[in-house]
Design brief:
The chain has 1 helix and 7 strands, in the order αβββββββ. It is mainly beta. The radius of gyration is 16 Å and the shape is globular. The chain starts with a helix and ends with a strand. Bound molecules: zinc ion.
Length: 117
């Protein structure tokens, strides 16, 4: 049995989209990312499965979510960098601790890069 509440805790509340010089825009991840669906009600989103694995420099979590409005399934893919690339400069730089979030459809096809978390 997968605990739905635990899965919800894995999903960041917000992602940030870079607007170049205008800073960052914050968007809620409590929404359906499937085409033609405008569900933004977390009560109608049911996370039901997760996959976790590691790639060379990334930790990846995939959260499968069922949307009860369009009855579709989509996947939030959360990528966290494990190591920060070293700058070629000698001076210390702020470590970049950043995750990337993507939306995928049920078959793993990309619906696009949502933003950073
Ligand atoms: Zn939907």
């Amino acid at each position: 049995m997968v605990d739905e509440e635990d899965l919800r805790d894995l999903i960041p509340s917000y992602a940030y989209i870079s607007l170049a010089r205008r800073g960052m825009e914050k968007i809620s991840l409590d929404q359906c990312f499937l085409k033609d669906c405008d569900n933004q009600d977390p009560k109608l989103l049911e996370p039901f499965k997760k996959e976790e694995y590691e790639e060379e420099k990334k930790e990846i979590k995939k959260i499968y979510i069922k949307c009860k409005k369009c009855n579709g399934i989509f996947i939030l893919k959360l990528e966290t960098l494990k190591y920060v690339a070293k700058s070629t400069k000698d001076e210390e730089e702020e470590p970049l601790s950043m995750g990337l979030v993507y939306a995928l459809d049920e078959n793993g096809n990309s619906l696009g890069h949502i933003g950073y978390f």
